[in-house]
Give the backbone structure.
Amino acid sequence: MKQQPSFDIDLDKHYKATVVIACDACGHESRVDLTSLSPDVPIRCRCGTQIGMTPHAILRAQQQAAKIRQSYGV
Ligand SMILES: [Zn+2]
């Protein structure tokens, strides 16, 4: 089974969610707009490693973003 990528969610002042994904190979954090995440399009780290987000991981990211928005009261 493939390991799920680890990520954090960042919300900017307009409550736009950015997913911060750490690369397993080099530790560099790639920042991707949550709305542009797709299971078909891997995120390419600057070291060349491709990080694939599974549909499940994207769902988890969306849920996490919704939770943060809720805690902000929006
Ligand atoms: Zn990397």
